[in-house]
Every structure is written in structure tokens, then in C-alpha cells.
């Protein structure tokens, strides 16, 4: 009986000893699972935070882009409105001056070019002399002159049809050679050529005005644009000479300020 009890005790102890490693192993696996779960949770939280920050950044960038688009649209609209107001104002001023000039007596023979002592002549002689009155020229018609001139100007300023406006100004100069608007027509003919990059023809038109119509209110602008055209043609020395001449002959004018600004830009390019 005593031996049986001893055997039972030994058996129980052996069973407990055998069970101890398995219990410890189960705790180790549980701890490992817990560690893995905690690690996964931390990684998920970090990834979630990064995604949230990225989403917030994307939304912020989208908002900034939309704001910039709105600003661009607003500025584009305001710029177009400003351009339209400037065009309307310019056409209105030119139209009024055209009516005033058209109401004056017909212009006499074109005045001779200014002498070098008083006002330097253009760098290159004009290719086309001012149109002279012909025997079969139409009789003076101030209303017709103004209408033809205004139609050509509107074609350039409002409709942006430079090719057509050039033909219309040519026709005006041919049909109304004694009109007081002829100097203006020569200038706008040069502008029509200038905007279509026909610089050589623009040079001829501007030089014709400068050589044959001293004292015209378009003289300063014609000399400025002459310089621009010469630069565009690669005639840098002549272009700079024309630009330097503008503030000398027409100080304080808008054309003089533009000429000086262009000369400063050219000087910077030479550095």
C-alpha cells in the first residue's frame, strides 16, 4: 500500500514536470503573438497617419491649384478688359483727332525733311516717296476721307486684320493724297506691316512719314517703331541710332520713354 502511494506521487510529479515545459512554451507563443499584434497595430497606425497627412497635403495642393486658377482667370479677364478699354480709348482719341484734322484745309505739298542741324533724318532713305496729287485724284470729300480712314483703322485696331488694313491704308493714301490724314495713314500702314512681321515694308512706311511729313503728331512713334523694325531685321547699329534719336528729338514723350527702356535692355544684353 505504501509502495502504491509512492508510485502515485512519483507519477503525479513526473506528469507535472512533463507539463511544465509545454505550459512555458504556450506562454512564449502567446507573448510572441501579442508582440506581433502590437507591432502590426503600430505599423498600421503609422501608415494610417502617413496616409492621412498625404491626403491632407493633396487636398491642400488641390485647393492652392484651384486658387491659382481662379487668380489666373481673374487676371486674364481684367487684362482683356484693360486691353479692350485701351483699344476703345485709343480708337476714340484717334477718331477725334482724325475728325479735327479732316476738318482742316487740304494739306499742301508734303513738307521737306528736317535738316540735320534741326532734326536728324532717318538712318535710311525712304523707299517710297509721299504720294503726290494726281490730275485724276477725286475731289475733296472730308466725309469720305474720314470714313475710309476710320474703316482702315478699325480693321487694324478692332478686327486685328492687319493684312486687310494695310491694303485699306494703301488705298486711302492713293485715293486721298492731299488729305491731312495721309501722315497718320502712313504710320498705321507701317503698324500693319509691323504686326505681321513685314519689317522691311514697315521700315519704308515709317521712313516715308519721317522724311515727308515733318511735324506730324505720329513722328515720334514712327521713329520709335523704325528702330524696332531695324533691330528685328538685324540692323542693330541703325536700330540703336534710331532709338537714341527719339528722346533727343521728342523728349518727355511716351515714345522717348520706350526708346530709352529698349536701349537699356540692349545694353544689358551686351554685358
TrEMBL record:
Residues 28-106 form the YbgF trimerisation domain. SUPFAM superfamilies: TPR-like (SSF48452). One of its GO terms (cellular component) is outer membrane-bounded periplasmic space. The keyword Cell division applies. Residues 104-126, 133-144 have a biased composition (Low complexity). Keywords: Cell cycle, Cell division, Coiled coil, Periplasm, Signal. Pfam families: TolA_bind_tri, TPR_16, TPR_6. It comes from the Bacteria. Mediates coordination of peptidoglycan synthesis and outer membrane constriction during cell division. Signal peptide: none annotated. It comes from Arenimonas caeni. This is Cell division coordinator CpoB. Residues 51-85 form a coiled coil. The gene is ygbF. GO terms for biological process: FtsZ-dependent cytokinesis; protein trimerization. It is found in: Periplasm. Residues 103-144 are annotated as: Disordered. Belongs to the CpoB family.
Amino acid at each position: 500500500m505504501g509502495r502504491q502511494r509512492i508510485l502515485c506521487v512519483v507519477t503525479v510529479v513526473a506528469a507535472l514536470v512533463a507539463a511544465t515545459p509545454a505550459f512555458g512554451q504556450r506562454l512564449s507563443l502567446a507573448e510572441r503573438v501579442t508582440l506581433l499584434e502590437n507591432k502590426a497595430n503600430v505599423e498600421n497606425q503609422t501608415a494610417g497617419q502617413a496616409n492621412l497627412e498625404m491626403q491632407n497635403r493633396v487636398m491642400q495642393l488641390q485647393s492652392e491649384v484651384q486658387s491659382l486658377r481662379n487668380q489666373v482667370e481673374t487676371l486674364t479677364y481684367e487684362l482683356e478688359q484693360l486691353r479692350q478699354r485701351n483699344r476703345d480709348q485709343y480708337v476714340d482719341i484717334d477718331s477725334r483727332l482724325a475728325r479735327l484734322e479732316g476738318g482742316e484745309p487740304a494739306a499742301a505739298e508734303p513738307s521737306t525733311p528736317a535738316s540735320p542741324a534741326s532734326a536728324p533724318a532717318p538712318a535710311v532713305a525712304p523707299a517710297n516717296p509721299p504720294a503726290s496729287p494726281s490730275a485724276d485724284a477725286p475731289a475733296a470729300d472730308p466725309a469720305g476721307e474720314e470714313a475710309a480712314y476710320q474703316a482702315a483703322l478699325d480693321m487694324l485696331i478692332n478686327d486685328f486684320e492687319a493684312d486687310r488694313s494695310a491694303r485699306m491704308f494703301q488705298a486711302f493714301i492713293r485715293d486721298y493724297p492731299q488729305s491731312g490724314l495721309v501722315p497718320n495713314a502712313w504710320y498705321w500702314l507701317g503698324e500693319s506691316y509691323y504686326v505681321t512681321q513685314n519689317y522691311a515694308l514697315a521700315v519704308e512706311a515709317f521712313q516715308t512719314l519721317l522724311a515727308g511729313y515733318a511735324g506730324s503728331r505720329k513722328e515720334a512713334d514712327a521713329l520709335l517703331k523704325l528702330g524696332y523694325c531695324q533691330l528685328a531685321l538685324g540692323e542693330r547699329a541703325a536700330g540703336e541710332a534710331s532709338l537714341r534719336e527719339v528722346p533727343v528729338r521728342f523728349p518727355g514723350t511716351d515714345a522717348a520713354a520706350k526708346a530709352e527702356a529698349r536701349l537699356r535692355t540692349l545694353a544689358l544684353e551686351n554685358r
